[in-house]
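Title: Comparing notes on inverse folding

I've been comparing how different people in this forum approach sequence design from structure. To keep things fair, I'm posting one structure and asking everyone to reply with a full sequence. Here's the target:
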């Protein structure tokens, strides 16, 4: 093969490489735009369901962006932590409609009347005392129990799974009021990208066939 033909083949391989690289970048851009569109249009909406155990499940699609865009969208950096992969923000509210605590009436050492009460169950406990000026509540404890899962949701046999975030809340008195998530897209080194090897393979095949 003369130098002219070799140069032509090298140019063909370069063009093929640039074409595949352009297609890959356009695909990444579309995915980024879709993620941002979802975040803006749905205003970080999420779905809640109650399972058979009466526990709340809050589900939200993953917002997958690069690190720069994640910072623009409000990625909260934590001191001593780097190489962020996922970050989920959740706002919950714990509400008890009615709590009945039985009074315990007694007289202290000074002969003064003392009225106390206490309440304890799996998710809340407290002690208190009735005073002339109001009610004193102390040692108030509210227990919350969460499981955060980042996974893929199956949409069908021939459909691509949807990346989602699921928050399982076991406290029946606690409801999810707000939820937001960011998943940092991990950039692969160019030599690990499959289209690089596909381009080289096609180019090598063309080159060998011309020898």
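Reply #1:
Here's my take.
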């Amino acid at each position: 093969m003369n130098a002219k033909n070799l140069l032509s083949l090298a140019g063909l391989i370069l063009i093929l490489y640039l074409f595949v690289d352009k297609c890959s970048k356009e695909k990444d851009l579309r995915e980024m735009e879709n993620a941002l569109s979802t975040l803006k249009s749905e205003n970080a909406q999420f779905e809640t369901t109650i399972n058979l155990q009466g526990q709340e499940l809050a589900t939200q699609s993953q917002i997958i962006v690069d690190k720069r865009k994640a910072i623009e969208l409000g990625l909260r950096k934590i001191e001593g932590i780097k190489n962020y992969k996922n970050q989920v923000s959740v706002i919950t509210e714990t509400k008890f409609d009615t709590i009945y605590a039985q009074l315990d009436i007694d007289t202290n050492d000074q002969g003064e009347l003392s009225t106390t009460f206490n309440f304890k169950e799996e998710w809340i406990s407290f002690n208190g005392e009735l005073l002339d000026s109001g009610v004193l509540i102390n040692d108030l404890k509210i227990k919350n129990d969460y499981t955060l899962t980042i996974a893929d949701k199956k949409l069908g046999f021939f459909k691509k799974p949807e990346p989602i975030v699921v928050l399982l809340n076991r406290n029946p008195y606690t409801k999810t009021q707000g939820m937001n998530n960011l998943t940092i897209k991990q950039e692969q080194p160019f030599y690990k990208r499959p289209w690089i090897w596909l381009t080289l393979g096609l180019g090598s095949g063309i080159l060998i066939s011309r020898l």
